[in-house]
Amino acid sequence: MNHGSWALSTPRLRAVFIIMALVLLAGAVFVPAASVPAADDEALERRVLEITDQLRCPTCQAISVKDSAAGFSRQITGKVRAMLKEGQSEDEIKAFFVARYGEWILRAPKKQGVGLILWLLPGLAIAAVGGWVGYVAFRASRRGEDEPEGGRHGEIGEAERDRIERDLRRFEEGF
Amino acid sequence: MIRSWKFWGVLSAIGAVVALFAYGFTVDPKLVPSPLVGKPAADFTVQQLNGEGALTLSDLQGTPVLLNFWASWCVACRDEAAILQEAHLLYDVAQNRLRVIGVAIQDTPEKALAFAERFGKTYFLALDDEAGTIGLDYGLYGVPETFFIDAGGRIQYKQVGAVTRELIRTMLDEMADEMASPKQEKGS
Amino acid sequence: MTPTIGYIFLTAALAVSLYGVFVPHLGVVRNNWNLIRSAQFATILNLVFVLAASAALVQAFVGDDFGVVFVWENSSSDLPLFYKVSAFWGGMDGSLLFWEVVLAGMSALVAYLYQRTNREVIPYVIVTLNIIHVFLLLLLVTYSNPLATQLPVPLEGRGLNPLLQHPAMVYHPPMLYLGYIGFSIPFAFAMGSLVRGKLDNEWVVTTRRWTLFAWYFLTMGQMLGGQWAYEELGWGGYWAWDPVENAAFMPWLTGTAFLHSVMLQEKRNMMKVWNMVLIIVTFSLSILGTFIVRSGVLNSVHAFAQSEVGPAFLIFIALAMVVAFTLLFKRIKLLESRHTAENLISKESSFLLNNLLFVGIAFTVFLGTVFPLLAEAIRGTKLSVQGPFFNTIAAPLGIALLALIGVCTLIAWRHSSWRFLVRNFRIPLGGALVAVGFSFAMGVTHGGALAVFAAAAFTATVLTLDFSKAVIVRKHQGDYAWPEAALQTVMRNQQRYGGMVLHWGVVFVFIGLAGNYFSREYNLTIPQGRTATAGEYQLLFKGFKSYQENNAQLRAAEIELYRDGELLETLLPAQSKYPTSAEPLTEVAIRRTIAHDFYLAMASENEDGSVTLRVLINPLVVWAWMGFPLFTLGVGIAILYKPKSLREPALERQYGVA
Ligand code: HEM
Fold it and tell me: How crowded is residue B9: how many other Cβ atoms within 10 Å of its Cβ?
């Protein structure tokens, strides 16, 4: 193996860890300062942005209500704010708009019914293919351990074998 | 002939994707059906633009309603202005079979009035509030949009974009048929 | 040159492409190399013809010849010359011609470059490319003729969409096309190899530079598109997961997977079938991209108007895929290699994982893009799949890729051991911890952002250590000065260190993307002469201003931007009116710093004289744009690398085949 290693001697390693610990500590100290409890309406505005980001702008369609300056988007934003002030939950607010615009208004389908296919399929597909490839690779690596180096093609190296195959084919095809 | 199941799997996948896109040619991605069709129309009370009295939608039950959303800044609304006015004169004033209502959205009273005068609109015109209460209740995407509400107060159809004479006539006939059938009784 | 003569050239181009489809096959059957040469010549002639046709169109644009329908639809006499030329690809028909021109240029280059080499496959490479030409030219002379004329000749054109009047829109489409079309070349070589049954690594080695070239332009095209969206659309982001954006992203993903997995074939003789699959899929996806833009099947802001070419494209994609996969399965026995990863912990495995992730993301994007259609077919109701879905699924996969770059760089070919890994991972993992701590200290608490920073720091540490170690070794070997040692290191292994620079670019882009997790937003209404606050900034609204710029009328709000009482800059967010368009456009004002962009858009001018502004504080955006120079440099270095078998004199030359 021509890779060296970057392992450090123990005292230096310890120093690195101490520095890291200090940085983490500094982080812990700074965090409370950074996140001063937000003013009431600031928290409300944040909720408004969060919810309107999940609603599709009826006019422009490509972007969210939050990102849109269109009249309807501004009115929807106002309605969301009003409903939040009345103490309605995010689900209730979404249900309000779904009842009027259809599920289309949600920028991602609910995780139920057909929507479930969408949400689950990528993960399942990746897991299935990954599992299969992993299994094949694992079996192959087992087999590889049993055999001597280069065992499958005898004495001939890869490049050489390729050239022979190529020459043979050229011969066959007369080209 | 290729026997590999993988090959046929790949081919079926290609077929499925092509079929899906081919299906895509048959539908308009921009047209979103309203979930409100078949449901009772949301009630509202509005002041007339010219200041002559108010109107509550539910008071009109018993007669079908054409509820049109428009705005003075909307280009397509100009195209349909004459058709709506004509429908008002013919079916409402002359035949008393239909009420035509226009609600302007995201507009100012002055501009809306000027628009109404320019196109000689004489039917009931109102202005939605600044929060867009009525517009949101009807799930508007833009203007013009027109709802046909039957005598029982149920939304029968929603038109996106300008209305046509044929559409109004057909809807009027359809809503009359609905009334004739007994199942509509609970609607009053 | 008149449009009619241009059209005649298009027809002539169709004729020579048909020649290029049939004659090479004849040459192979008759064993007559002269026939094949003539087809190569025809391919070069095709370029001349389509260039002539394009010249006719450019001339019509520059000369304001509104008798040409396409010019009338996409230009006007007041348009700056710059945009008159770029309006060429601003509409559908012209962009199709542009596509054909680019493909013709590449095909001609292929015909010219490989006259003596790759002789077994080249006839069918020429055939494949010419089949694509025939398809495009058929469309161009029928449904989609950009040179069609009309009478009477209108006095004025309808004008170019004002959104397209932006420098990025001049470069972005051609770059995307270079990318999309560039993948046709490796695809054509793959097909040539399959037809001839010449299934060694030659096609992979020959097309490596083409692939890198295509990858580079696809990458740049997308980043320029993002920049355009960010500056011109005014909603504050650069990527909306719009179907058309996804259409460009999918071939990029599979193309990047291909770029990596061909390395396995070249170096370890693995993945031969898979590479074929990847290039077929990448090519199909790049055509699918054009299909999505042109068919109007999916709801997109960027799409051209619905048109008749949609079905034609769909049929073409379907046929291309069926033929390609049939060829592949006919030859699959020849391709199946007995080489697999010998050890689970090896660079080979990391490549498998790399491909799994890239293709997994591509699948996710594909599914999300077509899902509205699928749901409608199944259930009959419309639903939306936008950012919230894509971000949720793709972000973790992307972060895994980012960390995997580091893992892959560390790990050795063939086999590695856990012990080795653990030992070498200590410092990079420490780097990740430090990054998390630092981010925390800076007040970043979002989990997604922290994950990106951790992965980025991990990978950056690995890349730094890996490179420094190599430079140190070189310095001691040759007693060089540091810069020379570094340069030598890079030039002695251009692929490895070109790849390293590219991966640095990836690290930067990811850091920039992570900023999305903690951007802040304020909606402010400010009366004239008053101040409002947005986070740590104060905005003083001085008043409105009107002025003219090119052919647009601008109405701007003059905003003085302060922090801690200190004037930073005067910003002019505006709304612009173009003579040919009713709706005003938003012209944003951006103050860029390393920490964040201060992004200011004018939402409305109110009747009481106040202004309503949308303020976004977008962290780290500038970092993402660092991808531009890094990707350019990285590809510049990596493209210098010649795989082994290219460095040897070509066998054909040795054998002296005439
Ligand atoms: C978004 C992620 C990535 C992008 C955009 C990217 C892009 C690239 C590009 C363009 C090249 C140059 C190819 C050539 O020289 O032919 C390259 C090289 C390389 N990539 Fe990536 N890559 C990414 C992720 C990865 C990952 C996850 C791995 C790990 C398996 C990896 C491993 C490599 C290797 C080993 C090289 C060759 C250079 C070297 O030996 O370091 N890349 N990459």
Answer: 10
Residue count of chain B, please give it: 188
Burial call A112-130: b when 16+ CB within 10 Å, e when fewer: eebbeebbebbeeebeeee
- Neighbour subunits, C (≥3 Cβ pairs < 8 A): A, B
Tell me the C-alpha distance between C470 and C459, whole Å: 17
Distances (CA, A) of C225 to C164, C168, C270, C561, C588: 11, 7, 36, 28, 16
Find, in chain A, the residue whose alpha carbon is nearest to that of B130. A75
Cβ contacts of residue C317 below 8 Å, gap of 6+? B18, C284, C287, C288, C291
B113 residue type, one letter: L
Q: Is A20 in a helix, a strand, or coil?
A: helix
B58-84 pLDDT, tens per residue? 999 889 999 999 998 888 888 899 999
Which residues contact ligand 1 via a Cβ below 6 A? C 208, 212, 215, 256, 259-260, 263, 350-351, 354, 401, 404-405, 408-409, 495-496, 498-500, 502-503, 506, 638
Q: Where along chain B do its domains lie?
A: 1-32, 33-180
pTM across the whole model: 0.89
Condensed to tens digits (0 to 9), the pLDDT of residues C111-135 reads: 999 988 888 899 999 999 999 999 9
Of C49, C46, C42, the residue nearest C24 (C-alpha):
C42
Per-domain residue ranges of chain A: 39-105, 114-174
> What SS3 string covers C590-617?
EEECCCEEEEEEEEEECCCCCEEEEEEE
Q: Which CATH architecture has domain B33-180?
A: 3-Layer(aba) Sandwich (3.40)
Partner residues linked to C566 by β-bridges? C563
In tens, the pLDDT along C492-540 reads: 889 999 999 999 999 999 999 999 999 999 989 999 999 999 989 999 9
Rounded Cα gap, residues A14 and A9, in angstroms: 9
Residue C140 near residue C96 (C-beta atoms within 8 A): yes
Closest CA to C515 of C591, C598, C458: C598
SS3 B67: strand
- Element spanning C547, H or E: strand C537-549
Q: Is A6 on the interface with C (CB under 8 A)?
A: yes
Chain B residues with CB inside 8 Å of C291's CB? 21
C256 alpha carbon – ligand 1 mean position (Å): 8
* CA–CA distance, C70 with C150 (Å, rounded to integer): 10
Structure tokens at B108: 């100012």
What is the per-residue DSSP string for C437-456? HHHHHTT---HHHHHHHHHH
CATH topology (fold) of A39-105: Helicase, Ruva Protein; domain 3 (1.10.8)
